[in-house]
Amino acid sequence: MNDRTIQLPDKVNIDTIPGIYDRIKGMVRRSSDSERITIDFGEVNHIDSAGVVALEKVQRDAGDKGVEIIFENISPMVEKTMQSFSSKLIESPPKKSRPHILEYLGEYTYKYWVTFRDFILLLANISYFGFVSFFHPKLRRKGEVIRQSNFIGVTALPIIVLVNFLIGLVLALQVGIQMRPFGAEIFVAQLIGFAMIAELGPLLTAIMLAGRSGSSIAAEIGAMNVSEEIDALRSMGIDPVPYLIVPKLYAILITMPLLVAIATFFGIFGGAVIGYSVFQIEFTVFYNEVVFILRYYEIMTALVKSIVFATIIIVVASYYGLHVEEGAEGVGRATTRSVVVAIFLVIVADSLLGLLFYL
Amino acid sequence: MHMAKPIITAKNLFAGYNEENILDDVSIDIFENEITVILGVSGCGKTTLLKNLIGLMKPSSGSIEVLDHDIVYIDEGEYNQLMRRIGVLFQGGALLNSIPISHNVAIPLEQHTDLPDYIIDEIVRLKLSLVGLGHAYDYLPAQALARAIALDPAVLFADEPTAGLDPVTASSLDNLLLSLREQLGMTLIIVTHELSSIRRVADKIIYLDKGKVLFSGKLDEALESDIPELQKFFTV
To answer: pLDDT tens digits, residue range B156-194?
Structure first.
């Protein structure tokens, strides 16, 4: 049998142990079966938990290989520390059995069903109180409709105007370039007019509002939920739906059609600017072409879309705000989900309404 | 009289927020292997003092020495090295929610050591076992404590560790702190106003009142003190 000894330094701690560990491990690797390595603790006056864990680990691993590691000359103080940090103290957590695939499937199906059910219930609740609160203003938070209208409508105006103007601009340019070889640039006006009124005006405005106001509403309600403000309202016998959510619904129902109208105007104006500067279409000609294509039907389409989109934004934001999980992280997650789901549902609704109105 | 050299010293400390001083000429000494409890009524400057001692806030004037480092004028590299020897148990845990508790405990080990992952994993499991996770102490402060002691700190700061806990759980946490002091030879500085905790764990008391140190001494002396504020605190 071949005996080898490693002398440990005075401090076996988090700084020195990686080197010591590698040295012992290397020695074990070079050792053959039933060899013995002695670790001399004679100089050690300080050992920490990392030292104990690493030395015990290398001792166990060596044992598995048939190499015996013996600890020698351990002072009582070091011995006490080694006992305090011994791996024997490590408790294995109870093993969780993996659920069957059908359990996963069932769980997710149930979760989605509950989400859908709660969403529909909230929609019904908001619709009911949206009607009732109109005749009982006391149910609503005082001054909230004006405040929310200002936040959702007025403060969102510059960005919505800019985005629609730019989209109108670039759309007119790309369409015009495609039509130029056929000498059909004049139809840019009709196309921009129709697309902006019936489709892009409401859709772009809804996407902007879902990102801007929807996220803010989800975060506001979510934060109130986390800090138990919603529970406080309920404990005072105040229903949070008419008190908090209905004023936001009114505000968005008032402001959204106005925003859509302004957005559409600036989208068409963007097209007209390109029509005038690139395709030499006079503003009056552009205006006449837009008016020519415009019917009350398109205006009604835009109005219906803006009302549906506004309701989706409010219901989705409120749903995620009211169902926020614990903590600040939960509020962040609810906000993100509310934006993603609201934009998704707005696009789905837009497609369905498009099919309904024009098929 | 104490002959040993204090491991933490603050001298003539003035500190606060927005140029308004909350700490008003505070001077304290904290000695090795002792449990010092900083106490006082809400708003007296306990947490401000703790944050200054940890280096998370800089005082407007005065000096602080922690483990022979001047923490007021310390550079970032030296501060990071110093913080390897200091554990902090924040009020509410301050664990990173996005990752599991075991990863939380592994963070300081991964960042400050060259240990292989399987050794880190074992140390993490040891620390979680030391604080009794998976058993009676399976609650947030214990999880945060496992992270705070990941590097076997010489000093552990705890900001209201038992706040909001029921008496049984609070007592378990106090016992845990006492046993860790024994096992790791740590010095503990605890901010609290929980009377039962103070009686269970404190060796020394520093009583703050309106940002000033009104009393600094042993627990027994504090209990028998004739300072009206302190008497009122211990008799309510």
So the answer is: 999 988 887 888 888 888 888 888 888 788 999 999 888
- CATH number, domain of A79, equals 3.30.750.24
Residue A133: the pLDDT is: 87
> Measuring CA to CA, which residue among A257, A108, A260, A278 is closest to residue A188?
A278
Dihedral angle computed from the Cα positions of residues B131, B132, B138 and B143, in that order, rounded to the nearest 10 degrees: 20
Query: Do A170 and A252 have their domain in common?
Result: yes
Whether residue A113 sits in one domain with residue A220? yes
Residue-wise pLDDT for A206-259, tens only, equals 999 999 999 999 999 999 988 888 888 888 888 889 999 999 999 999 999 999
What residue of A is the nearest CA neighbor of B125?
A90
> Domain check: are A53 and A113 in the same one?
no
Cβ–Cβ gap B183/A85 under 8 Å: yes
- For the packed helices A246-277 and A283-293, what is the interaxial angle rounded to 10 degrees? 130
Q: Is B85 on the interface with A (CB under 8 A)?
A: no
Q: Are residues A56 and A186 in the same domain?
A: no
Please tell me whether residues A213 and A123 are part of one structural domain: yes
pLDDT at B64 over 90: yes
Higher-confidence position of A107 and B95: A107
Q: What is the pTM of this model?
A: 0.70
Q: Is B109 on the interface with A (CB under 8 A)?
A: yes
Residues A137 and A199 in one domain: yes
Question: Do A81 and A105 reside in the same domain of the chain?
Answer: no
- Asked whether the predicted pLDDT for residue A28 surpasses 60, the reply is yes
Whole-angstrom Cα distance, residue A41 to residue A26? 19
Residue type, A29: R
CB-count burial class (<10 Å; 0-12, 13-18, 19+) for A288 = exposed
A326 → chain B, closest CA residue: B97
Q: How confident is the model at residue A301 (pLDDT cuts 50, 70, 90)?
A: very high
Each residue of A78-95: pLDDT tens digit? Answer: 888 888 888 877 877 667
**Rounded mean pLDDT of B131-151?**
75
Statement to judge: residues A189 and A279 lie in one domain: yes
Domains and CATH numbers, chain B: 8-235 (3.40.50.300)
**Which residues of chain B have a CB within 8 Å of the CB of A12?**
none
How many angstroms separate the CA atoms of A54 and A43, rounded? 18
Which residue range(s) make up the domain with A76? Answer: 3-89
Residue labelled with tokens 């993100």: A336
Query: Per the structure, how many domains does chain A have?
Result: 2
For residue A94, is it within any domain? no
Q: Judged by CB atoms within 8 Å, which residues 112-151 of B form the interface with A?
A: 112-116, 118-119, 122-123, 125-127, 129-130, 134-135, 151
Q: In this structure, what are the phi and psi dihedrals at residue B16, rounded to the nearest 5 degrees?
A: 175, -160
